[in-house]
Structure formats: C-alpha cells, structure tokens
Write a structure and sequence with these properties.
It contains 10 helices and 26 strands. The chain is α/β, with parallel strands linked by helices. It has a 6-stranded mixed β-sheet with strand order 21-22-26-25-23-24, with helices on both faces. Strands 3-2-1-7-19 form a 5-stranded parallel β-sheet.
Length: 426
Amino acid sequence: MSERFVILGNGIAGFSAAQAIRERSETDEIVMISEEREMTYSRPRLSKTGVKSLQREKLLVVPEGWYEEQRIELVLGKRIVGLDAEQRKVTLEDGAEVLYDTCIYALGARPFVPPIPGAEQPHVLTVRSYEDFEQIRRRLALAEHAVVIGGGVIGLELAWELAQTGCPVSVLELAPWLLGRQLDRQSSELLEQAVRAQGIEVLTGVQVEAIEVQQVNLSEGVALPADLVLLCCGIRANVDLAQKAGLACDKGVLVDASLRTSDTHVYAAGDCIQLAKVGAEANQKTHPHPMQNPGLWNYARRSGEIAGCHGCGKRFVPKTEPVILNACGISLFAMGSVEEGPEVETVVAAAGRAGQKKQPVQFLVNQQNGTKLHYDKRFYRDGHLCGAVLIGDLSAMKEIKNLLQSAERDPAGEGEDEHDGQTLYN
C-alpha cells in the first residue's frame, strides 16, 4: 500500500528526503511544501558567486522538469501555519489542509539577528535566501561603504564578493580571531593577513553598539561609515511549528539515530534538528564532546537522505564535515578538532601526507612557507589525527577528510548509512 509523505521545506534536506523516498518507492505520494517561491537551489552558492554575475537558473539543484518526472508535487510560496501531529495534517496560511501518513520536518533555520539597536532598518540585511541576495544586489548599486558583522565563512565570502565590486568593506568580529571555532590562532592570523591584503578592513574583538543610517557605532567609540550592513551572525533552528505541535525540542527538533522525532509519524532533517543521542559520542577519542548540528550543506543533505529512507531501517551516524573557504585570493580547509592543549600534538608542515606517522612532539617545518599561505597544520590526540588546517595547497583535503571520518564509525558497528552520494561542501 502506498503512503503519503509530506515534506515541510524544500531546502537540500527536504529535497534529499524526497529523492530518497522516490528511489525507494515508485508509488508513494510525495508533497513538498515551502514558503520560498524558488525550487530547491544551492544555498551555499549565494555567498560564493559574484554579486553581479549570479544567475538564478544556475543555482537550481535539478532542472525544473525533474519534479514532474519524479511525480513530486510542489507547493511553493505557501507559509505553513500549523502541524497537527494527532490528526496527521498540515495547515497552510490560506486555510488549506494537507494530510499525511509520514511527515518530514525540514524547515531549516533562520539568520540570527543580534539585539543591536538599529538592526531593523532597511539597509541592514541578513543572508539566507535567494530573495535576501536580490535585496543585497539592489542595495549594493547605491552603497558607498559596507560593513559585514560576523567573521565566519559566509561573512568573509560575502565581504570578498562585495569588495570585488569596488565597494569598500569592513568585517567586524566579536571573537578574538576569525573563524574561532574552526581555526587555531596561528592559522587565523594567516587568514586575517590574507583578507587585509585584499583591501578589506578587519576588526576582531569588537562589540557593535548601534547601527545608524550611515554608520555603525562600536562600543570602543569608533564609528564606521556604512550604508549597507550585512548580519552574518549564525543561524537559529526553526522549531516554533514543532513546539506548537508538541514535538520535543531543545535548540533544535530532537531526533533519534533514525531521525524520528518524539512523534512516531514525524521525522526531521537538516539545520533544524538536534540529535538526542549521537551514535559516535561513545568514542571519546574522536568525539570528546557531544556533536552539535554544524549547519553545513552536506550534513543537511545527508540527514535528509536518512529521513527519507527511514523505512529501510538506516541509522543516522553524524560525520564531522569540513569548512572550506575560497575567497580573498586564498583557499582554506579546516576540519575536526583544532583545540590546542597539553594532550594535543601539533605539527606544521608545508608538505607531507595526512597518514604519515608523526613524532609525539611539537615542531615546525618550513615556517617561511607558511607565511606565504602554503600552510599545513595537523592536530593529533593519542597519536591519532583529530583535526587539520590547510591554507593554499588543498591537495591533501580528501585524504584528511577520509581519515577523520573513518575514525567516526558507529561503535556498535551497525546501521552505517550507505547513502553518502555526491560530496557537497558547506
């Protein structure tokens, strides 16, 4: 007997769930509902493509005719206002009700807007959707100076794209250094030098006090000119609908290893989920701390596949995913734990293979090469690779990724996800 799957959200998690369902069954009915008017597109490319050169059709994950060929019903531009887990139905803003046998909650996340006075002004924008990007494009045409608040990957990529148009840009970061969660201080200093070399102003360890019409005020008494302000301060999971439906939530919608929520007929995937139990957390060498949702493209894609294939009995075993930056004239790869400490051995080398055995001491090789942004830093815990940073030459990227992920096998040795598919980063 065929079932009806209703997927809430058409980001990469929702799309991957629909694709996995159709691969498993030719007869199940699939309905995908989204508030966005666009078909599934590559969200990461919004910050990785030139502001002036971005074309909508090149963002699409699949051609427009794919959905009809796969018999997937799209309901776009409709806001979901209700989820009734008991009655198994979804209510849309126009009053329409959609019944389901199984619901996949993939509503993603929204940009975090810090409580900064003036953040509600029209020249202060967030970057999450294609519509957001179009607003930036319109504002940029008249902008004389831009400020990016947030020095993460997306903030740096957008700062680079804005600078490429000739607009002066300043990047503000609250943390002591750029990419504080992904890079150690030494690697971050090299990155900051590269960003500054492109004419982009970088201020770290600063607090924004207020945003005015033509400037951004810092608590240190500094005022920066800005008629375009981009907030790149992270994301928050969209859990409101799930909470109202009575689903268990914390920072995200709580799911088990099969991505089932607290309701047996509702699964969840993507940026909105939080694993109640992490399969690999028992392995303290590879996961000394509980794994959080990284908000990365590949994580969302993979979780969507597992939610869609739940009937196959697959478990979701989270894998550490890399952060990759291609902006400001450099390439950067960071993955795993880069927290330095007495139990972590650090090796900096311009050359060498990821699997090469290292001596259990700290040493430097070819330091001068590192200053030229051909930098390779590995982190070892108990003799095992636990993290790495590459800047410039990324040829060892695949090998490092395989080594780190191979150490994250399910401790029970069961239920490893077979649907790894095409690798898409960030």
